[in-house]
C-alpha cells in the first residue's frame, strides 16, 4: 500500500473512492446541499492505493481559520473526506492515512487540527477530543411568546437592540454577499468558530445557507442600517419552519431574529438548528417548557499537533501555573509542560516538575477551547488530578467568558 498526495487530476477518483467507502454515489449540482467537493483543496488531500494502483482510501483537509478564546484567530486544518473502501477495512489503512496526515500537517507548520466526527468512537484514538457542542430547539408557535424581562439593566440592553434594529426578508440567491460579510464578522468574535473561505460561498460548497438551495433569509440591520445578523430558514412538512442557522452579533440580535421567525404566519412550530448549549433563548420564552431540546451532541473535535504553540496561542483570563503531563499514544510521544499564565498570556515549556494533571492529548483537545471543564474529565476517570485543588485550578485557568461554538459543516 502507498499513501500519496493528490492533485487536481485526482479529483474524480478521490470523490468516487470516498463515496464507495460510505456506500453512496456522488450526486450532481442539483443536490439541495450543494456540491460539497467544490471546496476541496487537492494539494492537501491523501489517497491510499494498493500495490497494483487501486484506490482504497481517502483523507483530506481544508485550510481554515479557527477563533480561539481571546478573539485570537489562528490557522487550523479541517480534516474531511476520511474513508476506507469496505474490502480493505481493519487492515491498518485508516491508521496509516491518519498518521501520514498528521505528519504532513506538522510539516506545513500547522499546530491545530479539527474535524466533525461521523462516529464518536473512531477519532479519539487518533488524538481528537470533542470540544464544542450543539443542540436543536423546537418551539410550538402558539407557545412562542417572550417573557417580560425582569432585570431593568438587562431590559435596557436587550430591548434597545430589537427596538432600534429592523428585519428584512430576502431570498438566498439575492443576498450572498451579506451572508458572507455577517458570518465573517461573527466568527472572528466567537470562540470555536471556523472561517468560511470565499470559494465556499461562490461555489455553494456546503449546507444551507452556503449552498444555493432555496431559502429565505431574515436579515437583521442595526440602527445605522448595517447588517449584523441573519436567520436562514425554510418551510417544511407539517408547517414546521426550520432555521438552518442563526448568526447574530449579540444576544439582542439573536432574540430579535428568534421573535421574527416565531411570529411567522401559517407555522405550527419552529425548529432552531445549531443552538449553543446554555443559550438564553429558552429563558426568554414565557413558557420555559415550550422549548424542547433534542440532538444534544458534540460538533467540533480538536487535535493539538504542537502543545506549547497551541497553549500559548489562545487567550487566558486568569493567572496561574499548571504542570501538564500529556500522553500522545498515537504518535508515540509523552511530554510534560509547565503552563504559566500572566495577564492573559501563556508561556509553556518542558519541565521535570511533578504534574498537577496527567491526560491524553485527546482530553487536552476537549478542554482547549473551554467547552469542556477539566474537572468533568477528572470525574469521568479520564484525567488524573494528582493533588486536591488541581482540577479546580485547571477549571479556573481554562474557563472562557463565552461558550465555544461551531456551526460550520465541512
From TrEMBL:
Keywords: Acyltransferase, Transferase. Acetyl-CoA binds at residues 82-84, 90-95, 118-119. Gene3D superfamilies: 3.40.630.30, SCP2 sterol-binding domain. The keyword Protein transport does not apply. Residues 1-153 form the N-acetyltransferase domain. The active site is at residues 123, 410. It holds the Pfam family Acetyltransf_9. InterPro entries: Acetyltransf_17, Acetyltransferase_Eis, Acyl_CoA_acyltransferase, Eis_dom, GNAT_dom, NAcTrfase_Eis, SCP2_sterol-bd_dom_sf. Homohexamer; trimer of dimers. Belongs to the acetyltransferase Eis family. This is GNAT family N-acetyltransferase.
